[in-house]
Amino acid sequence: MVHSETPSGTLNPVQDIGPIARRHGAVTIVDCVSSWAGIELKPEEWQLDLLVAGPQKCLGGPPGMSILAVSDAAWAAMEANPDAPRGSFLSILDWRDTWHGKGAFPHTPSISDLNGVHAACAELIEEGLENSIARHQRVFDACWAGVEGMGLKPWPVSKDIASACATAIHVPDGLTDIQVRDHVRERYNVQISSGQTAGNLVRIGHLGNTARAMPMVAGLAALGQGLADLGADVDVGAGVAAAMASLSASGA
Ligand SMILES: *Cc1c(COP(=O)(O)O)cnc(C)c1O
Q1: Which of 87, 105, 150, 228 is the most buried (most CB within 10 A)?
Q2: Among 6, 65, 136, which is best to mutate for testing ligand 1, by the most ligand atoms less than 8 A from CB?
Q3: Ligand 1 centroid to 190 CA: how many Å?
Q4: Residue nearest to ligand 1 atom 9, measured at CA
Q5: What radius of gyration do the chain's Cα atoms show?
Q6: Using a 6 Å cutoff on CB, does residue 35 contact ligand 1?
Q7: CA 41, 42, 46, 49: dihedral to nearest 10 degrees?
Q8: What is the pLDDT along the chain (252 residues), one digit of tens a residue?
Q9: Cα–Cα distance list, 61 to 30, 131, 133, 181, 233 (Å)
């Protein structure tokens, strides 16, 4: 299952699903690529088994590596599986036996990627995980307020199920996500995202180093004016004012 479902800007209740799966003896595999390091995630308490994250999202590190957390149940399931990969860069068991067992890499590592992840982890530790999570939440709250203030409709049906890593927004009738994204990029040099497979929506991403007030406000303003350019009925000023008021109230 996916924790933070980036294409639709939603969050799945893995904290509720984990204990149910554990009770039934099922091993859970969780894609927490866009939540890890920016959104609350408690693998042990939530009884999740195999978690996969990437350094290039909320950590603000380089792409190219995978970060895993593996529970005892997940190790047991892999050991019991005669078809589990071995002799491969993709073999989690190989990594365990050599890295955890001997403190060595099973294959030549990508040293520049490792150094990048190491540096990004050092920055996270310096900031503090709780502070990183709070920063993502503050910027998300302000973005959501800005979207509503502009008269636009967030894609998640309620804020309770929204992910703090990106704000997904319904594209007004008569326009398409690709058209809006391309226009905003071309005219304002601001990159927002399309809805990919999730629907006719656009997204303002705010994770890692973009989970800061000003990149988010730039995204919001460029999206609002871009929609106005394309004929949509939006109040850009009211949206920016609402986002700034939210930032002000949160002390950011
Ligand atoms: C970005 C993302 C991925 C893809 O990560 P890659 O490192 O590009 O494979 C997968 N799942 C989610 C939820 C993501 O946000």
Answers
A1: 150
A2: 6
A3: 21
A4: 54
A5: 20
A6: no
A7: 90
A8: 999 999 999 999 999 999 999 999 999 999 999 999 999 999 999 999 999 999 999 999 999 999 999 999 999 999 999 999 999 988 999 999 998 888 898 888 889 999 999 999 999 999 999 999 999 999 999 999 999 999 999 999 999 999 999 999 999 999 999 999 999 999 999 999 998 888 999 999 999 999 999 999 999 999 999 999 999 999 999 999 999 999 999 986
A9: 20, 17, 16, 25, 38
CATH of domain 4-127: 3.40.640.10
C-beta of 165 in contact with ligand 1 (< 6 A)? no
Contact (CB, 8 A) for 146 and 85: no
Domain over 129-250 is classified CATH 3.40.30.10: no
Residue 54 beta carbon below 6 angstroms from any ligand 1 atom:
yes
- Region(s) of the chain under CATH 3.40.640.10: 4-127
Portions of the chain given CATH number 3.90.1150.10: 129-250
**33 CB within 6 A, ligand 1:** yes
Ligand 1 centroid distance, CA of 66 (Å): 10
Q: What secondary structure letter does DSSP report for 19?
A: H
- Cα separation, 61 vs 122, whole angstroms: 11
Residue 172: name the closest of 220, 217, 228 by CA.
228
Residue 200 carries which side chain, given as an amino acid letter?
Answer: N
Alpha carbon distance 179, 167 (integer Å)? 18
Tell whether ligand 1 has an atom less than 6 A from the beta carbon of residue 61: no
Q: What is the pTM of this model?
A: 0.95
